Amino acid sequence: MASTFNVERVATELVSFFGGLALLLACVGLYGVVTQSISRRTNEIGVRMALGAGSADILWMVLRNTVTLLATGLATEFPRRWWPRAW
Asked: pLDDT per residue over 13-36, tens digit each?
C-alpha cells in the first residue's frame, strides 16, 4: 500500500516539475519577444521621448503591444484546447 502512494507521489512531483519548467520556458520566450520588439523600436522610442512623451506613455506603448500578443495567443489557444473536450 505504501509503495503505491510512493509511486503516485513521485509521478505527481515529476508532473509538477515539468509543468513548472514549461511555464519558465514560456516566460523566457515572452521576455525574448518583448526585448526584441523594444530593441527594434529604439529609434521610435527616442523620437517620442524627444517630442515630449513621458515614461508612462512609453511604458503603455510597450505593454499594449505585449498584452495584444498575449491576448491573441490566449484567444486562439483556449478554444483549440477546449473544443475536443466539449464532445
From this structure: 999 999 999 999 988 998 998 899
